[in-house]
Amino acid sequence: MPHTQQFASDNYAGICPEALRAMEEANRGSAPAYGDDPWTLRAADAFRRTFETDCELFFVFNGTAANSLALASLCQSYESIIAADIAHVETDECGAPEFFSNGAKILVGRTTNGKLTPETIRAFVLGRTDIHFPRPKAVTITQPTETGQVYSLNEIRAISATCRELGLRLHMDGARFANAVETLGCAPAEMTWQAGVDVMSFGGTKNGMAIGEAVIFFDRALAEGFDYRCKQAGQLASKMRFLSAPWAVMFETGAWRTHAAHANACARHFAEQVEGLPEVEIMFPVEANGVFLKLPPALIGGLHARGWRFYTFIGGSARFMFAWDSEIARIDALVADLRALATADAA
Amino acid sequence: MPHTQQFASDNYAGICPEALRAMEEANRGSAPAYGDDPWTLRAADAFRRTFETDCELFFVFNGTAANSLALASLCQSYESIIAADIAHVETDECGAPEFFSNGAKILVGRTTNGKLTPETIRAFVLGRTDIHFPRPKAVTITQPTETGQVYSLNEIRAISATCRELGLRLHMDGARFANAVETLGCAPAEMTWQAGVDVMSFGGTKNGMAIGEAVIFFDRALAEGFDYRCKQAGQLASKMRFLSAPWAVMFETGAWRTHAAHANACARHFAEQVEGLPEVEIMFPVEANGVFLKLPPALIGGLHARGWRFYTFIGGSARFMFAWDSEIARIDALVADLRALATADAA
Amino acid sequence: MPHTQQFASDNYAGICPEALRAMEEANRGSAPAYGDDPWTLRAADAFRRTFETDCELFFVFNGTAANSLALASLCQSYESIIAADIAHVETDECGAPEFFSNGAKILVGRTTNGKLTPETIRAFVLGRTDIHFPRPKAVTITQPTETGQVYSLNEIRAISATCRELGLRLHMDGARFANAVETLGCAPAEMTWQAGVDVMSFGGTKNGMAIGEAVIFFDRALAEGFDYRCKQAGQLASKMRFLSAPWAVMFETGAWRTHAAHANACARHFAEQVEGLPEVEIMFPVEANGVFLKLPPALIGGLHARGWRFYTFIGGSARFMFAWDSEIARIDALVADLRALATADAA
Amino acid sequence: MPHTQQFASDNYAGICPEALRAMEEANRGSAPAYGDDPWTLRAADAFRRTFETDCELFFVFNGTAANSLALASLCQSYESIIAADIAHVETDECGAPEFFSNGAKILVGRTTNGKLTPETIRAFVLGRTDIHFPRPKAVTITQPTETGQVYSLNEIRAISATCRELGLRLHMDGARFANAVETLGCAPAEMTWQAGVDVMSFGGTKNGMAIGEAVIFFDRALAEGFDYRCKQAGQLASKMRFLSAPWAVMFETGAWRTHAAHANACARHFAEQVEGLPEVEIMFPVEANGVFLKLPPALIGGLHARGWRFYTFIGGSARFMFAWDSEIARIDALVADLRALATADAA
User: Fold this and answer.
1) Do D225 and A78 lie within an 8 Å CB cutoff?
2) What pLDDT does residue B4 have?
3) How is chain D split into domains, by residue range?
């Protein structure tokens, strides 16, 4: 059952060749469990080279765990976490941050595109300072945001400066971090620790891996005890090499960036093709690997009828996501169908 | 860096050919995320056929999560779980059952080989019945136990009868369930739901998979909400097919049993070879894929010096574990070294 | 240091004579601990008579615990609780519901006066039905609301009908339940279980007691294990009689209603006196024991300068609360000051 | 229903005159809520004078909460707490420490009388140092122990030295701290911070108060955020003055020591009277306000038949507790009955 007609999510894609090869290579013979193996060492080295710093890092199974464990390590149960209203931790993790932190509250900042601002953060911190409300302790930003916008380096720096001023720690949800790096064309270090990020969840799955995300502590002191935290939370893989080897090869080959560049290019290509079509509105600047369109119900129905898969949201928006394996030919076929439907509907 | 000299753990082994092939096959094209894919359906069917019942099942990342989530679903935070003193949930999961259940207490039954008895269970339930102590609500047994003994069907039935009488639910930690099935030569159904087990954690990793365990609810009513529980706990894989496809193929090919049979046979072979060696004592009946030897320090040191890897415990015990990939030739080499050392030391 | 100039909160008031007398009477001799005493029995009887039903009840220390334990008993960690935006559980309990439930999320319904509606509830339940978001399981309404409005019996019935239809349980935060009963002039049963409320937190402190709230389960099945839950949560008083005796006497003497009636009358009296004063706006209908005024900064400052204590909120609102011990003469003095300031400022 | 025949527990006693008077005096007029009142200030001053140090302190509702919140503040969920096997936190708090800490494990040291030793502590810390077991982070000792023995100053100092060496924090459960102070005749400071205790739960209820315990942080840095922690956990009293005023008066009048001295003297008196009676064995040195007797079933039954109330335990032990209100005449009557029964039974 092929799903080549799909643009629903970048996690519908399979394992990219580099990651699969790494798993196969790592499968030679026995290796110590729980990360005491050469592949995990090699992956850690690759991370440190890539980020140009002696960071501390941990491999966990998925993004929900990466985000939640990272946030739990930054705050107590009676503290709170400032996040954007459309942040994945707020909308799509089924209360995982609250669960892992034993009750920390997420304070939801209103945004248009998922980008927090220093002003929003400051308002939360200054708004309530009594013990009847959980005091803010951490800020989480998603880079790129869930609607595909990328914080500029200056925007991140402004947020981190506000965090430092107010005694908050800064977490970055980098589920699609590679896509953001490609968009800005900057060094990973510039976008993270040099910009003031304390901890990052770095997503491997959407970048082409089978399973696995990394939690990177740029401030090693914050990592104290995190190995125990992962173990207790059911996030320590016994055959760790199958999580870590793909990271090593993705970094060593540069595949993490080429895959992201490809996905971003697909999104831009799609956006360029549909721009100006009647009844089709591009809702957000296309800065990563997703395109959100405002479409009338007839068009949405028409695309579905032709077998295209994508997410729709209340109010008539449709999300098209592109992955390392997206094919330009399929995108063009999608565009052709959309154009035909739009033209017919507008006529 | 080969580790062919290792008998440290069955999770030092790599991915068995069947599981790897399944991952490669599942990697064709896109597939819906979060388990809404054909491989997951196929794996679920395979489970139901294998267990001859319409059980409810969930694929999670590792055994700590499988055990802890299962136990958390069986009790409230103010209740308790009866376990053997050497049970993995008590000794090797870093407080995960307490964490996932938000504080349920593990009541530790003294045992010699990890086997609980109806008497131990009854004593806990009758010992304290006031609200100042968490009331027992679940029992967990490990099959085979951490020292490699297998509960007989009658032993399980007696425990489950006690559980039903006392209002307790019965969980089986089946991290090495396949090995127990091979030892008893019974149907999986006989050892589980037909014997009164309510929920089981079924281990895939030690059976030859890269990652992944299954939680099987034989009583479907107990599974209510478990999908949300997994999601919140960071245990819902997005690219689920790479967890589920290996299960499907392992069952369809029978590899789950042949691998376990091989590992069991290796353990028996090793035990037979070392039996009667001077200064070497086999500590427990060899009923699964592990052999525990009591060895003097000189022998332990001698084996380590020759490059053999295995776990040692306080008091001079050494554990040798055998996996799907253990080679008889290497075992014989180990035996030869042990014989040489033992003979020399005894001389 | 007298605080007779205070209208800040009804929990600034001391212990009413009836409650104090009950504590003194309960202090004769020894009594079994943890509620196995005659006063607790007598209080439970009084509750059941008052509510005309064989409810199950528990005495805990404060309102935060009463609300949080009740809500935790209604939902799992991966479920959610629908509450109004200004509900005490959302704004003033420092994440206690999230903590006691181990991570249940509060879904915040936008309101003008703290009143939820069937439509708001329905929208939450129908809005998200996937496992990536915690499914709604409980609704909590505050009676009267934090701004002093009272749900009519029909409003409560409409909400509970919606809850039953959607499989939700209904909790009432009755921190000032007595005031609502006085306002509606109905029987306690009518406003609670007869209207479909499953569990209520009944506030004693704001009604004149020193310490203590009651959690009332109208559906006794929901109370299963709640005694253990209270114990584990540090909410089981050893000298229980000093929590329960005041409840007994408050009910037996009718003081719980006369005190509430007095506080309500004080609020109405104050509102009547200030109505129509220049620059003074009564923000909400006065249906319980609080009055919210919109006042210019000069008036707020002027009142503070004259020694009056009351809460102020961003945007120029001031809350005046009245308790069992509020004196009409002091209220009139306050009104006189306010009138003088308002007239001068308007001139 | 008088219970003058009772020696079941020191929490069966009522409120002592000093504590009751304090509550009555504190009941004059209004006072700010949540501890911002003059009585709480006065109580805090009394504590600091009594302990001769600028400690940080918090008033909570009961001992379970005091212990659990204190321990939760000392460790993470993936860490563990070393306690004696008969420690109240292990045997009588229904898993509260595990609940408040979100899963920290209690490591149970075998003892004969509830006294931990440096050796026991050291064995736990050195026994497991891998991440599969929760690392020890705190030690809790009960002073006096649950069987009524008192740690000497040197014993406490030896434990705290071990804690400091091993990086552990030291908590003292002082539910009957006053009794221990009277026994040793030392200054409170000597037994606590000067001996290396970091945090103490100080019991008021068993000393004669209606409700309330104090958590004292001798290391103020450890108290950071504890006010929020109490609030979130439902342990912040709104009418705080009724918790704090009794503390103030108990300290100012010295009643906390005279009541403890009286209870201790009653226990010694009872022990002296029953010593040497046939079939009666005093099980533990009487160093506080409890006496444990080993009695044959006939004597236990005989005493019960004559209306005496006391706790019994499996194996034929009986506990007699003495409180601030115990009367020598009643004790003598109990002794007379016991002597008559013992003499008759032995004959």
Assistant:
1) yes
2) 60
3) 17-253, 256-346
Residues in chain C within 8 Å Cβ distance of A91? 132-133
- pLDDT digit string, tens, across residues C77-135: 999 999 999 999 999 999 999 999 999 999 999 998 999 999 999 999 999 999 999 99
pLDDT above 80 for C5 = no
Mean pLDDT of chain D: 96
Contact list in B for residue D133 (CB cut-off 8 A) is 91-92, 94
pLDDT of residue A345: 83
Q: Of the candidates B76, B132, B227, which has its C-beta nearest C131's C-beta?
A: B227
Q: Which residue of A has its CA nearest to D233?
A: A78
User: Is residue D344 scored above 60 in pLDDT?
Assistant: yes
For residue A211, give the nearest of B1, B231, B237 by CB distance: B237
Residue B346 banded pLDDT, cuts 50, 70, 90: confident
Query: H/E/C letters for each residue in chain B?
Result: CCCCCECCCCCCCCCCHHHHHHHHHHCCCCCCCCCCCHHHHHHHHHHHHHHCCCCEEEEECCHHHHHHHHHHHHCCCCEEEEEECCCHHHHCCCCHHHHHCCCCEEEEECCCCCCCCHHHHHHHHHHCCCCCCCEEEEEEEECCCCCCCCCCHHHHHHHHHHHHHHCCEEEEEECCHHHHHHHHCCCHHHHCHHHCCCEEEEECHHHCCCCCEEEEECCHHHHCCHHHHHHHCCCCCCCCHHHHHHHHHHHHHCHHHHHHHHHHHHHHHHHHHHCCCCCCEECCCCCCCEEEEECCHHHHHHHHHCCCECEEECCCEEEEECCCCCCHHHHHHHHHHHHHHHHHHHC
The pLDDT tens digits for C191-202 are 999 999 999 999
The predicted model gives A268-296 an average pLDDT of: 97
Which residues between 31 and 60 in chain B have a beta carbon less than 8 angstroms from any beta carbon of chain A?
31-33, 38, 60
Count CB-CB contacts under 10 A for residue B281.
Answer: 14
Identical fold for domains D17-253 and D256-346, yes or no, is no
Condensed to tens digits (0 to 9), the pLDDT of residues A74-108 reads 999 999 999 999 999 999 999 999 999 999 999 99
For A137-160, write each residue's pLDDT tens digit: 999 999 999 999 999 999 999 999
Given this model, what pLDDT does residue D3 score? 46
Chain A residue numbers touching B211 (CB-CB < 8 A): 61, 211, 237, 239, 242-243
Write down the pLDDT at residue C2: 42
Beta-carbon separation of A133 and C102 below 8 A: no
Q: What is the mean pLDDT of residues C127-148?
A: 97
- D131 and A227 within 8 Å at the Cβ level: the answer is yes
C17 touches chain D (CB under 8 A): no
Which of B30, B41, B176 to mutate: most A Cβ within 10 Å? B30
Residues 129-148 of A with CB under 8 A from D: 131-132, 134-135
CATH architecture of D17-253: 3-Layer(aba) Sandwich (3.40)
Which of B95, B102, B133 is nearest residue D99 as measured by Cβ atoms?
B102
pLDDT in tens, D191-229: 999 999 999 999 999 999 999 999 999 999 999 999 999
Nearest chain B CA: its distance from C85 CA (Å):
24
Can you give the pLDDT at residue D220? 95
Q: Which fold has domain C17-254?
A: Aspartate Aminotransferase; domain 2 (3.40.640)
Determine whether the interchain pair D232/A102 forms a contact, defined as Cβ–Cβ distance below 8 Å: no
Instruction: Give me the architecture of the A256-346 domain, per CATH.
Output: Alpha-Beta Complex (3.90)
Cα–Cα nearest to A4, from B31, B24, B41, B26: B31
> Are A78 and D134 within 8 A, CB to CB?
no
Shortest Cα distance, chain B CAs vs residue A236, angstroms = 8
